[in-house]
Structure formats: structure tokens, C-alpha cells
Amino acid sequence: MPVCFGRRIVRTCKGLWNGKGGGFRCGPQGSESDMVLITRKIEFSASHLYHNPAFSPDENRRVFGKCNNPHGHGHNYTLEVTVAGEPDPVTGMVLDLKELKEILEREVMQRMDHRFLNYEVAELKGQIPTCENIARVIWDLLDPQIKQGRLHRVRLYESADLFADCYRNGAAC
Predict the structure, then answer these.
(1) Of 37, 92, 129, 157, which residue has the fewest beta carbons closer than 10 angstroms?
(2) 114 is a catalytic site residue
């Protein structure tokens, strides 16, 4: 189960930059097992609204403000997906980036792009589609699909200054 960190919280890898454009190396310097983090970024547009059916209309407006507009509002989301692993000695890749792109297209874009998240995304049914909840749903969709390396981080930007991170068990590295 991923641990998602809320709004405006930044986590960093405490690894060592290898200086070769590959990413961070985690673990002690000079360890035999050099882990590399590789990140793919995609963008999608979707609308949502914040509404808790247990609240009165006044309470929903008070708690969620303009995000409780019954017609919803939209965002241009940016999703960063980071996979950790050792580069394959034959290909030099942690995983086939073409395969990761296909997974993101199938699991995220087809499901969420240009959708009203409250009503059109089954995995969000019964949840308030906050940035945190959407990031957690995306983690749950992607984690079983990644066969090479392992899912390390899902970062979902709702806007330039607001994002949620999910890490495996809350560990940054």
C-alpha cells in the first residue's frame, strides 16, 4: 500500500547523483548494487468537484469552497512516474520506456484524460477526487503493471505549486 504525502510536501532521494545523466544512485557510494531512478512525465486534463455526501450543502461549501461547485472545475494535471531498478546489462535500461509509455496511456490517459473524475472513473467512486486520492489511485493502477524494476514514486501536479507524492511504504529511497 503506498503512502501518499499531501499538498506542497516535497520528498527527495537521499542518494548520490552519479553525474552521468542517469539519475540518482541510492545506497552507499561504491555499492555493488547501483539503483537508478527513471521518470516519465505525462499530462492530462480532467474535471472534478469536492463533495462529501455526509455534509450538508452549507458544510460542503464551507469546507470545500469553490471546489464544491456542482458543475465542477478542471485542471491540466502533470503526472511523473518514477521507477527504480538496476539497469539491464544488455540493454542499459531499468525498463523499456516504450512499455512504460504504453502502460501510462492504457491505465491513466484512457481512463482519466478529458473525464469528469467523480462520475467517469470507477476507481474514484465513493472518494473525493483530491490530488492525494487521485495519486493513490494512479499508484494502485500502475504498481501491478510494472514488471521490470519497481514503482518508486507517483507525483501528481494539480497546478504548478500543488502536488501529491506517493511512495512505497513512505520510503523516499
Answers:
(1) 92
(2) yes
Question: Domain limits of the chain?
Answer: 2-168
Determine if the pTM surpasses 0.70.
Answer: yes
pLDDT tens digits for range 47-77: 999 999 999 999 999 999 999 999 999 999 9
pLDDT at 80 over 80: yes
Backbone angles phi, psi at 16, to 5 degrees: -115, 130
Q: Catalytic residue among 26, 114, 123, 132, which?
A: 114
CATH class of 2-168: alpha beta
d(CA 171, CA 165): 11
**SS3 for 170?**
coil
Told to judge if 158 belongs to the known catalytic residues of this protein, a careful annotator would answer: yes
